[in-house]
Amino acid sequence: MVAMDLFRSEEMTLVQLIIPAESAHDTVTYLAELGLLQFKDLNPERSPFQRTYANQVKRCGEMSRKIRYFQDQITKSGRTAAYRPLRDKDIGVDELEAKLTDLEAELLEINANTDKLQRTHSELTEFQLVLHKAGAFFSSVRNAANTVQQRADIENGSSIGEAIDRPLLQEQEMQTEPSKQARLGFITGVIPKIKAASFERILFRATRGNMFLKQASIEDAVVDPATGEKIEKTVFVIFFSGERAKTKISKICDAFGANCYPFPEESSRQGHMKTEVDNRLLDLQHTLDAGINHRDNVLNSIGNNLDQWTVMVRREKAVYHTLNMLSIDVTRKCLVAEGWCPVSAKPKIQDALQRAAFVSNSQVNTIFQVLHTKESPPSYFETNKFTNAFQEIVEAYGVGRYQEANPGCFTIITFPFLFAVMFGDWGHGICLLLGALYLVLNEKKLGSKKLGDIMEMAYGGRYVILLMAIFSIYTGFIYNEFFSVPFGFFGGSAYRCPDSQYSIESCPMATTSGMEKWSYEPYAFGVDPIWHGSRSELPFTNSLKMKMSILLGIAQMNLGILLSYFNARYFRSALDVWYQFIPQLLFLNALFGYLSFLIVLKWCQGSKPDLYHVMIYMFLSPTEDLGENQLFMGQTFVQIVLLLVALVAVPWMLFPKPLILRKRHVQKMQGRAYGMLRESDTESTDLEIDGEHDEEEFEFGEVLVHQMIHTIEFVLGAVSNTASYLRLWALSLAHAQLSAVFYDRVLMFAWGYTNPIIRLIGLIVFASVTFGVLLLMETLSAFLHALRLHWVEFQNKFYLGDGYKFQPFSFRTLSEEDDL
User: Fold this and answer.
1) Coiled-coil segments, which residues (predicted)?
2) pTM over 0.85
3) CB of 326 closer than 8 Å to CB of 337
4) Residues carrying CATH 3.30.70.2750, the chain
């Protein structure tokens, strides 16, 4: 891709397609595979349910629902879909719909049968536990009763055989009326363990104590037949007397969700029932296993093609949704489409149309024609994986107007550089570079994974981080800082200790009286390491970084104004050149360009004038003699001229442009009125209506107020934007001081001890705060400030950002949210 392709958006054109109805689906499909045509909605007044292909969209939505159901079933079964190549390559949408319907019906039937069998299995399991626990209770009671009876018979001298054959009630006692005889009954079942205590209290109160409850806890949790969840339960046996008590107890059991099961009184029947339940459980388990195996086989067959089916349904739904945007000509049995495409893509689109007509066996080819319109086209920049992140940074502020100058190509360099000015430390830059290299070298592997939100943002901006790291290493060498430690890589220092018996590193006067200069050869690259730790380190670095921030800011703002000239020239707007570009350039450089010139001149001369005094009295007292603050001959006269230029530039920006626009409008209306006299009465009436409509569109007062706002914004912004660039100095100073504090107060403090454990702890703490504060928080802070400088201080000089993005219909941009 040519480098200047990013400077202006691609040339776009509005095209019209007249598509035969029989090839409409294939045509839209081929265009979606190409991904270079943005369709316009030609039916904006219709709701989605009133459009032609609403039923097809509904069918695709139903297939999407079935696929979601299959995905949920696969997830619940604890397996993942095996994404394999599609075996049914020639399957159509109708066949897929029938296949999904059959699979859903089969899976629903399997699930229903499995649930029913599982519920029966859970009930039989509980019944088995009731037979075991209650049977054990009855056996223990019977054995205890026999033991007591044997003891009583021995004491009374009766034999055991007589005791067993003796009736429980005497003959006279059994001759009472049947209505007065009370029969003892019982109910057995299971209840959740957490409800057992409340269950017992309610039973006692409801029967007024006329019942006997026996409970036995189940060791392992059992599956509840109603909910299908494993819970702890208790087996209970309730003895009562009378039908009335039985009715009350049954209602209480239902209220507490207790499952009651029949329990025979005879021992022989109990054994027979246990055997029967065991056999039924065994048969049921075999049936369940077979059903689960069949269900797993069905889910495996679905999972093999689920991804391909998902993509197919997603594409079909997108195609029919796009077809709904087309206008239908019923008489000619064709569809009319309109859309935007790059001019360079017209041959590719025509080729796709021909292939679609051939595949669909259409006897008529699609008609492709260019439409001329005054509508503003969308903005389209052909980016790659390197430039895309920088273009996204620009478009986060606003999508550029069609073919206006794009700041994205400059942002590739200026954004990471301004970040590095605030972050300059080549030690931290190396750490950042290692992280960026990991993302870049593993981009294929990471791109195929689902990353978290933060990791996804870092991966998307991996090339931005890479350039930020490289520039940070460069500015770190300029600042001569490696985790706040200087290195003399580029030659010796121009300063030495006044006392010759001390070296530079151990000179005690470095923090008191200072060093003495012995060489006029400057340090080869960057800041002389002797400044680190000296008495004048902070004033020197403050002055250097503050002046450097102003120079960088004025340079970038001048670049923005220069780009406004290229915009005006490209759009052939002479008014913007003469009454916007020129006065803005003069105003900015008459004041702050002059300040930048003084900064550079002061550095070259090595003099000590007070630039604050020069700039303040340039406004307060322009004719006053500068005295010791004078840098060159005739400086006072130059300042007066520059001040007058700045004052003239303000009305130059404010008044001429609205007045010229008003004059042009009046001349246009006079020419139109002359043309009206030469037309017929009807035509002249129409022209008069049109003229009145155009006249209403131009309001001189509105244009004047708009121009006034822009003038005031630029004049005040020239001051505030220049001051805003001082954030480069402030954040660079903060980063350097934080780094020095962590190095001196954490690492060096721990290194002052000879204990290796203390040193290790100090190293860990230093690494933690360096990573958390300097490599994460400071990186984010510098990134946001660099973003602000580009959006506000740089782009507002030329970038309108009121366009809209080119969004072609493409299968590659479809996401999961678009179909499911």
Assistant:
1) 86-120
2) no
3) yes
4) 113-144+184-288
